[in-house]
Amino acid sequence: MIQAPSTAFNPTLSSGVIDRARTDDPESAASEWNAEFRSDISSFLDDELIESAIDYDRPRELPPRRS
Description:
By secondary structure, this protein is mainly α. The chain contains four helices and no strands.
């Protein structure tokens, strides 16, 4: 896995755009530009809810469906 700020991969990104984003929404900008996981929405869906949505009996590949 590679994790680094956007400017490490694209140094031509506008620092003004990034600075404005950090001012407008620091949490979102940290995720978007600094490759940081968001802590403000980490509890949006709990593990139990996600687990209940998984159908473990479903085959990995499904045959094509006719339109």
